[in-house]
Amino acid sequence: MIGDLSLPVLIASVLTASAPLIIIALGETLTEKSGVINLSLDGVVLFSAMAAFVVAKTTGSLLLGFLAGGFAGMLTGIIVGYFSVYLHLSQVAVGFALSLLCRDLAYFLGNPYSRVQGPTLLAGKLPFYEALPSSLQIILTQPLTVWFALLLIFILYYFFSFSKAGLCLRSVGENPAASFARGLNPGRIQMAAVLAGAFLVGVGGAAYSLSLKPGWGRPQGAEGIGWIGLALVIFGGWHPMRVALGAMLFAFLQVSGIGLQDIFPGVPSQVFQTAPFPLMIFTLVFMHYSTKNNRKQGYRENRFQRIIGKLFMSRAPKAIGKSYRQE
Predict the structure, then answer these.
(1) Cβ(97)–Cβ(206) under 8 Å?
(2) Which among 9, 54, 127, 322 would be 20 to 30 A from 193, CA to CA?
(3) pTM for the full predicted model
């Protein structure tokens, strides 16, 4: 229990708060597994959040709003993919420039809809809600974004580990030249991964303006989330489950800040709002190097630790960030 937050409320709040970040981070994981880095995430999240809210407000349809957010993200993915995969320009430069452009466009185009009420995705009850204990009723009363995020974790885990398409994508991310020699088209696979990943990032952005932080304005409440998503992918070892756990850890730090604010009323609220960002980075770095050093020093793991290590440890694709020119 933290402050006035009971354990069921804390768990439910963490699941709700982490869902958009899980979707965003997993979308970037899909992109980077193919060897392409999309550094425009922070601007894309805001741009897709704006597009989703505007469309949902105009049409009155949450479904169209989420689709608009996804396609707004995919539009930026086309730019990233074309300049990075086909024109072989610096992925870092393209990403930074696009991030700033998307952020400014979001605030400019969305200004007429600032602080306007619109449709909101509310938490729904499961069919067997009444038969559950009260604590589980609290935890499992969630919006559809939470269930989509949890399902996406296992879909991507299966995709990367067991599907033929996932293995082809991973091979391109490791060695595009060898993949081409085996009959694959690295450019086409990378472009598909960039578009799919950008679509998921857009859906995650839409989840902010249509569910977690309903509405649009400046600030919107999702500023900086794109950079956290990028950090989660790196320190999560490009593994869907570990990336998702990192997102839940960040959400836990955010929710805990709300409870701690009641315990320490004398501390400025800005401290609790900004603290999760540096704490998240520090925690991920600590976890990364602790595990790395244990393995270097020949630390003997038991069977359970070996299973967990295999499940959650991974490494960066060897060709990540490198432009491949087909000969």
Answers:
(1) no
(2) 54
(3) 0.87
